[in-house]
Design a protein that fits this description.
The protein contains 10 helices and 10 strands. By secondary structure, the protein is an alpha/beta fold. The protein has a single domain, classed as Alpha/Beta hydrolase fold, catalytic domain (Rossmann fold).
Length: 364
Amino acid sequence: MFLSALSALFYLSSIYVAAGASCACSSVTIPVRVDTLVPKDVTDIYGGLKSNASSLRPVNATYDVYGVFCRPDSYFFLGVLQLLVHGFTYDSQYWSPPVEEFRNYSYAAYSCDRGLSSLAIDWVGVGLSSRPANSSDVQFLSCASAVSQVARYVKTNSIVPGLLPFEKVIGIGHSAGSGLLNFGAITEGAQSPFAGLILTGELIVQSGEIPPLSAAPPARDVDPLRWGALDPGYITSLAGTRSAFYPPNATSFSPRMLQFDEFTKDVGTVGAYYQILSNSLATNYTGPVAKVIGSEDQLFCVGTGRCANVTALTAAERVVWPKAQRFEVVVSQGSGHCMNLDFFANGPFNTFVHYVKQFTGIPL
């Protein structure tokens, strides 16, 4: 009970930080219906996209997706919503962490200041969204379906009383959240509800780049008090390992942010852990796509030479987006994997806003 109350307190703090003088934020819960087939084997790296019918099983359920909706108090661009999707073992607080230190780590607040509304959601199985008792129900097929259903919901329903539905939704993901948006683009192609995608902290993953599952043990073993009732398929990061999500230079981020990150980490599932590899498959998505990666991303860039030549990197990443209206890659100098959480955050934030406006026709 204590930890549940503490978790809720952090969510309220997150809302408060985003809700500065220029921004009004509120918690929302959106019901979504997921009716799909998922792999019986959760370690299927392609999430069922290459499976035959006999190796799939149905997931048919209604879930409540929790989110924090923020819109500018004064002027804002009508009809445009940013749907923000966090990464693995994070939750919606990633987009507006309540750690300030005279710096702005909140993308919700930053984009509000520039006239853009946002909805930061928790994955199904994470945070304050519905958490299925069976972790094997939480896979890329089911979670991507839920995210797309949220996008469709806000295009046909008022998210808060008195507000018209949104005409255009831009998906912005971080890390595995980018992978989730990528997966949805693979399954839905030209039928995707997203007018554009901004994928951060994510490049095509090769099989050798996935750490062993021992790096993400059952959450109930890591913190029995908080997660002792969960089945072992719900996993989280080992204590002391989250520094890998920051630049290797420790002066590039606040130690208080790293402490907050560790203290508020959430869970993922074994299925989602393995299925990030599905982003190596081509998609028929036809909208514009931008990828933003930090030059100091220890998962993809540091020590690999992969991010040194942006032209070559763009060509390599473009291969799996053959029908995208446009495709660009930006390497954000100084930023780590969790680019929202280090001292260079405003650089990527400015890039996100630029692409949101460009993809939706808002004057730059």
